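User: quick one, sequence for these tokens?
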């Protein structure tokens, strides 16, 4: 996962920006604690972002509590009517973090939609596509870390180009210097602020 852990609302926004609708496979080869996967599953299941959270606007003087409850009930109804059973797969090399990702999916009530594999992404076999790959890899912000990451990004690019012809590949980059090791050209570069870091949500159309 990236150097700055993703907040849920940012992860939800990234999934929506990707254009993924839940009708095709979605894979995160470096899933970390599973935030992107959980938000993707929430979208596919019809969960409204923040449905079970409280918001500052609820304390406003002109806040309409009845209207708020009505809208939340509508959101819950859409959630119950969700029809998609998407294939959502994550891969994490560290067994303890993979276990955390599974626990997070279970806590979100979405473990039935998400498969977390423990292992190296280089050994990951993508399902039949086309589909969407999303990824928040390390950025290498420490001095001297870039060299350590060039091999990782190079291998990630090789895996994508070998297995994912016809897929969409989205990567959150906080370090333009290491994304070049992918040896791929992004078709879109969307500016993203991730915990104060200037990042780009990069889209690659895999041929």
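Assistant:
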């Amino acid at each position: 996962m990236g150097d700055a852990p993703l907040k849920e609302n940012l992860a939800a926004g990234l999934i929506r920006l990707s254009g993924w609708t839940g009708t095709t496979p979605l894979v995160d080869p470096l899933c970390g604690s599973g935030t992107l996967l959980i938000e993707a599953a929430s979208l596919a299941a019809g969960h409204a972002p923040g449905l079970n959270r409280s918001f500052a606007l609820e304390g406003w003087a002109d806040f309409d509590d009845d209207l708020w409850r009505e809208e939340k009930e509508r959101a819950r109804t859409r959630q119950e009517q969700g029809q998609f059973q998407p294939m959502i797969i994550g891969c994490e090399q560290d067994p303890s973090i993979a276990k955390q990702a599974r626990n997070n999916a279970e806590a979100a009530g979405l473990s039935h939609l998400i498969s977390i594999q423990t292992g190296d992404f280089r050994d990951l076999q993508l399902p039949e596509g086309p589909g969407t790959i999303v990824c928040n890899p390390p950025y290498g912000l420490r001095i001297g870390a870039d060299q350590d990451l060039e091999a990782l990004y190079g291998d990630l690019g090789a895996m994508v180009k070998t297995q994912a012809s016809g897929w969409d590949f989205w990567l959150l980059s906080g370090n333009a210097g290491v994304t070049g090791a992918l040896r791929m050209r992004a078709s879109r570069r969307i500016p993203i602020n991730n915990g104060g870091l200037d990042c780009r949500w990069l889209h690659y159309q895999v041929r």
